[in-house]
Amino acid sequence: MDEPLQNKRAPVIEPGYTFGSVTDKISAIVLTRPTSNTWFIGFGVMFLLTMMLLFAVSYLFVKGIGIWGVNVPVGWGFAIVNFVWWIGIGHAGTLISAILLLLRQSWRNSINRFAEAMTLFAVASAGIFPAIHVGRPWVAYWLFPYPNTMNVWPQFRSPLVWDVFAVSTYATISALFWFIGLVPDLATLRDRSEERWKKIIYGMLAMGWRGSARHWHRYETAYLLLAGLATPLVLSVHTVVSFDFAVGIVPGWHTTIFPPYFVAGAIYSGFAMVLMLAIPIRKVYNLEDFITERHLQNSAKVMLATGLIVAYGYVVEGFMGWYGGNRYDAFLLWNRLHGPYSFFYYMLLVCNIVIPQVLWIPKLRTNPVWLFFISGVVLVGMWLERFIIVVVSLHRDFLTSSWGMYYPTRWDWMTYIGTIGLFLSAMFLFVRILPMISIFEMRTLLPEAEVKE
Amino acid sequence: MKRTKAYGLMAEFDSVQTLLDAANRTREAGYKKIDAYSPFPVEGLAEAVGFHHDEVPLVVLIGGLIGGLTGYLMQYWISAVSYPVNVGGKPYHSWPAFIVVTFEMTILFAGISAVLGMLALNGLPMPYHPVFNVPRFAFATKDRFFLIVFSSDPKYNPTEVRRFLEGLRPRSISEVPD
After folding, report:
1. DSSP string spanning B15-49?
2. A188 by DSSP, 3-state: which?
3. Which ipTM score applies to this complex?
4. Who's near A444: CB < 8 A, 6+ residues apart?
5. Touching A: B residues 116-145, CB under 8 Å
6. Model's pTM, two decimal places?
């Protein structure tokens, strides 16, 4: 049917592999490959950044959020900007593992595992911010409904409480999805390990998986159902995050375009992060045969498409400011274009709309160096978008007397950069101790896996 | 060596197609208690070993319903019964505001049920299983395919089963000690 068209594109997996060679190649990265000095240096640097995060957070707990740049009128500074940025990055992992599974996009098989790991670590980084942002972090658990001697309960009409449920459900389901996907591969590692302690650890994690036909059947059913559940979930998470803003009456927040525009932005930044991780990983671990040009190209196309949805969101915001007739909305537009933070707004337009348009050129979509660079630009752009939404909307609202400026302090920066360290050190550990590509799903892509009844 | 009753007889195959054909022929030969092992999910293999009732979807449905009900009733009870707070004149039972948490709780419970239900129905975690006593079985998670006829099968007779399995042209046949 679409055979001729298929042949022109790069394959999902280079020809010539067998069940055995796929298994050996991926499991060898974990089991036999010596840990290089570059890995130790990279992990060491990221570990130091994680320590910096712990230092910054400890000092915050001692001193209080006065060490940050937040103050009236901008009460939501870096913490919320970074929270939304990290949660958004996580979305690509679920999109790849769940939505593309339901759409039978077999190219997802070689990138879903590490994209899901990326989701988990990104959600973990994101989760830190609301917890430390509440001011009294030792009572952050008050966010959850639990019977208490104070006889009070959370306010369920508030989007902030919805967000607690959305993000904690998202973290739980992502972790389950990831772990369940790992079980058959952990059994492979159990059976391939030479050392006894590795056999024991991987064996315990594999829970006695033996690949029985009955088990596989239930496994596939459960996996498919999880994908079906994770698909509306991932769309709901950033929708609920956008409700945190959209339900408030602050100009620049109170718009109905927010949910779709947030979800598209999340996938946009998430695919940028997937590419920024995949491009060095495939190079360092010689995985170009599994993560082929096809993967890079498809990810670039998703970025291009979601980037255009984000651009549409900006256009609608501008149009509503101009056409809506609300003087505060109109002022917000003016303030973005000419106010004290206008430089960042123009940077945002350049990073998120202008530069990514080069992805229309097919050659650049398969060029790893260019893609890496563009992905970095998109990540910066998406961070700026959240900065514009949070800070620029808040710093000049209805009353001129309550206008102010927001300047992040060194503690804001240390916390933000520290979470990047946390995220990347977790990724460094992940590629060394777990198979970063789903081995059993790669086997199903091989021609020898085909059967006729 | 004192011979105890074996757990079953296991045949090893090179390709997924031979395993699927062998499983079908074994079932058609009247063996009921059989199983097949493969390094990846194979369409039709579960049916070939006589597996028909997958209860995972039912477990997930029940889990999802319980989650949704828990989510909604919890919010109703908290907001309208236990701790009614008047917010901007909104009704205490303001159901549209409760939809989001109800949805999230549905997904959470359904997802946990899918994972725990699948593991429980599969009898996992199971640290010991007789099939692991066969050294070659380590390749069941790499590139080999196995078929077993359990000794609990009513038609089980070691010599006959061995002769039957040999007719399926396996790579090797091993007895699985109990």
Report:
1. SHHHHHHHHHHHHHTT--SEEEE-SS--TTHHHHT
2. helix
3. 0.91
4. A109, B40, B41
5. 117-119, 121-122, 124-129, 131-132, 137-143
6. 0.91
